Amino acid sequence: LQVDHDYPNIFFIEEEHLNIFDNQLKTIRKKITLMELKKIQENKENYGQQAERFVFEFEIKRLCNHPHKEKIRIISDSDVSAGFDIVSFDENNSIIPDRFIETKSYSRNANFYWSENEISTAKKLGGRYYIYLVDREKIIRDGYVPTIIKNPYQNIYNKPKDWHGKPISWFFVKV
Question: pLDDT, tens digit, for every residue of 113-167?
Fold first, then answer.
């Protein structure tokens, strides 16, 4: 290991020690193959579809007496840019769909990714926008109710109380 005195925070590793250093990095950072990444993405897609189907059925049961419950729909199959997954009704006396639901699936600790488009849509729709957090480990239990967050732009993004957000990736444009 050599230290450059002009750059005291930069270390240079001798060629013969590179393998040792590389092996140490592997213990810190898990190596992942393209096939493994594709499998992870496929699992996430399946989890999302399972959660959407669960929330759809949950809404049908919640609004079992609604005269137009057939208008409750999963729209993410036909419009992935809507900013939400399901259109529903807020109450049994709602005349037109007025609840817009973004479904998020998790396991163990409640967490989710929220896209810029979803956040923007939540801001526009305010109290008509909901996030339903579905715990994959509890989804098969009778009577399970997902965590329902009304107006998440106000209650999570704008005034986080019980949530911590962090940037995962950044988009850069050359100016």
Answer: 999 999 999 999 999 999 999 999 999 999 999 999 999 999 998 877 788 888 8
Q: What separation in angstroms does the CA of 11 have from each of 4, 5, 6, 29, 84?
A: 7, 10, 11, 19, 48
Contact predicate 132/102, CB 8 Å: yes
Distance CA 31, CA 25 (A): 10
* 3 state SS of 160: coil
Cα 146 to Cα 139: distance, rounded to the nearest angstrom: 8
Rounded to whole angstroms, how far apart are CA atoms 152 and 128? 10
What pTM does this model have? 0.80
Q: Where are the beta strands (DSSP E) in the chain?
A: 2-4, 7-12, 73-74, 86-88, 99-106, 129-135, 147-150
Query: What tokens appear for 73 in the block?
Result: 């729909």
Nearest 5°: the CA angle 15, 19, 20 is 110
Whose tokens are 């990714």? That residue is 113
95: left (phi over 0), alpha (psi -120 to 50) or beta: alpha
